[in-house]
Amino acid sequence: MFKFNREREVAAKEKKLYKFMKKNKIDTLLISNLNNFAWVTGGGDSHVRMTQTSGVCTAVFTGGKKYIVTSSIEGGRIMDEEVKGLGYTLKAHNWWEADKKDAIIKDLIGSGVAASDDGAFNTRKIDAELMQLRMVLSNEEIRKYKWLGKKAGKAMSRVCKKIKKGSKEDDVSAALAKELFKEGIQPSVLLMAQEDRVLKYRHPISTQTVINKYIMVVLCAKKWGLVVSLTRMVCFGEVAPEMKKKHLAVLKVDAALNLGAKAGLTIGEVFKKAQAVYKETGYEKEWMLHHQGGVTGYSEREFVGTPGNKDVIQGNMAFAWNPSITGTKCEDTMILRKNGKNEIITNTPNWPMIEIKVGKEKLERPDILVK
């Protein structure tokens, strides 16, 4: 099992958090959302339903102490499996007395100034500020992220190579989910589109539709709160000339985005590089049909890039760019290291690749897998 120094990671994050609280004169901070809870606890998971964004507990930081506030149903597991050894004190209420959670939290807040990531109890909502804190990854987080990316890439490769003509989109989703769950990884997004649906929809959820010629496989995989994203294209028989042209063009846009992401530039400046390549390759307006991805980490996208975005890129930020041209798409997760290296962490082993040049730099991008 992959091991990491969770205590060191959490200590560094809490130091950053308390500094933020002091600077902003916040006496009590409430964290309830899954992504922030995972971030501040070094990978704790407070979900029960796969679809929820707010967890079943609230972490409360106040007076130099920290608490987990939740029901009697959840308290034992959260304390034993999600925050063990991290110094939290449990404040649990009976499950049939849900209003008691509010009373507990209000008592912890007292008369001080409180903030939260969800605006509960009429507190100042600071989710955007917390996003800024979590976007620059620590070395420990990068180690975990690379492990996750490697596992997701291997799962994608294994499943795509086993897809058979005549299979259904749902068959591919099921196989990919199985590969991930075996590693303790959750699929947070599974999109599948065969030859007809890939021409119509940018976000095609998996269906019982039969695959005859093409399949686009889109995956977001989650562990420790971190999310990686990748997309691969598979074709049965010869790839049509128009599809080859489109896919090569989308690879060029993808490479421009991944290699163009440099510390000190704004997201908007990188976005404009992609727009230029769309125009150069003859697909000028395709970027308008779907977002191009953006910064990732503790959400599938912390935010998506736009032409006017002025957020400044920093080292140790992660990106999941996903340019698309009707019928095809390219996507991987990349970490911009502090030494300036753009490191793709979701490589798919033994996949056909095409080397793309961007100025003096080169980047190998995934071709269509032909079966």
| Class per helix and strand makeup | alpha+beta
Distance between the termini: 34 Å
Strand content: 25-35%
Number of strands: 19
Helix-strand sequence? HEHEEHEHEEHHHEEEHHEEEEEEEEEE
Residue stretches low in confidence (pLDDT < 50, at least 5 long) are none
How many distinct helices?
9
What is the count of structural domains? Answer: 2
By CATH reckoning, the class of the largest domain would read Alpha Beta
CATH architecture of the largest domain: Alpha-Beta Complex
Strand order across the largest sheet = 4-3-2-1-5-6
Helix content: 25-40%
Shape: globular
Based on CA atoms alone, the radius of gyration comes out at 22 Å
CATH superfamily of the largest domain: Creatinase/methionine aminopeptidase superfamily
Q: For the report, how would you describe the main beta sheet?
A: 6 strands, mixed
Indicate the mean pLDDT.
97
Report on the architecture of this protein.
With 371 residues, this protein is of the alpha+beta class. The protein has two domains: 6-135, Creatine Amidinohydrolase, Chain A, domain 1 (3-Layer(aba) Sandwich); 139-370, Creatinase/methionine aminopeptidase superfamily (Creatine Amidinohydrolase, Alpha-Beta Complex). Helix content is 33%, strand content 26%. The protein contains nine helices and 19 strands. It has helices at 6-23, 34-40, 75-82, 99-109, 127-135, 139-162, 169-181, 241-260, 267-280, and strands at 28-33, 54-62, 65-71, 89-93, 114-116, 124-125, 186-194, 214-223, 226-235, 293-296, 303-304, 317-321, 324-325, 328-329, 334-336, 342-344, 353-358, 361-366, 369-370. Strands 4-3-2-1-5-6 form a six-stranded mixed beta sheet, sandwiched between helices. The protein has a five-stranded antiparallel beta sheet with strand order 11-10-12-15-16. A four-stranded mixed beta sheet has the order 7-8-9-19. Strand 2 (54-62) and strand 3 form a beta hairpin. The longest helix has 24 residues, at 139-162. It is globular, with a radius of gyration of 22 Å.
